[in-house]
């Protein structure tokens, strides 16, 4: 009887060890770098706040890809660029929206990711430019310099907005200490503006942005322009910014707004299957006219393939190659 019990125990241990040697449930491939997971897995797509462009457009993209390919993509609310990179590093999300500047910070271990580089992701496509929108209901705030001493929302924790705000304040000789900062999402910033709790808010997203559009339906909204001198000063230290204009008819403002913008880029974990990333890119760029969102009109194949500092995923590179465009890969 003792011999039989010992034999059964040995068999249990053997099968237990075999089970431990299988694929981990969290998808960690750190011991098998560069190996793609099987095609057809569900991809969690980290976007942004539910009143921002990332979430609105991301939901449209995810639903279209899911409905028209064998790849299932689910858009989820997040705290924005930094949070998206961190979620992907933990494999709680497999894809994410990210500002082009934050993407570079993560990959190179700078600023938000100082000394802690995250390199297990690749570029899928650059989709559109997202403008730095400095929103106020006070017509007396006409310049960034006028924000001194004011209550200003400079982005939620985990977003790239915070550093965009610091960059722009710095170009005007201001620091975080020169304002009374709050750290809020776009939706919370709009509520705080309506309630008179803050004087202005930084919103970095493709215009029109749902939260700002909602505010403009009931209040006179003002966007603070940047002048050419300070834009030039900003670009000297932060060359990833591009000058951009938000037309007056976007929010019904009295005049066009001159500001700066960064790129909105989709990134993906390196271990996501090539076919799934190919399906995502091809479904979007072969069917731009079928995507029911304002930002779809800004999609451009050349711009999609324009990222040079972070390599592309093989699935994206395969699609661009079919279009005669070569992109860098790892």
Describe the structure.
- This protein is an alpha/beta fold.
- It has twelve helices and ten strands.
- It has helices at 2-20, 53-68, 81-90, 100-108, 161-171, 186-194, 210-216, 228-237, 248-251, 274-285, 301-304, 314-322; strands at residues 42-46, 72-76, 95-99, 121-136, 151-153, 180-182, 200-205, 222-223, 242-246, 257-269.
- Strands 1, 2, 3, 4, 5, 6, 7, 8, 9 and 10 form a ten-stranded mixed beta sheet that branches.
- Strand 1 (42-46), helix 2 (53-68) and strand 2 form a beta-alpha-beta unit.
- Helix 2 crosses helix 10 (274-285), helix 5 (161-171) crosses helix 8 (228-237) and helix 10 (274-285) crosses helix 12 (314-322).
- The longest helix has 19 residues, at 2-20.
- It is globular.
- 44% of the residues are buried.
Which characteristics define this entry?
single chain, about 325 residues, alpha/beta, 12 helices, 10 strands
> How many individual helices?
12
Which runs of at least 5 residues are low in confidence (pLDDT < 50)?
1-36
From the alpha carbons, calculate the radius of gyration and give it in angstroms.
23 Å
Q: What's the overall average pLDDT, rounded?
A: 88
Instruction: Please report the total strand number as a whole number.
Output: 10
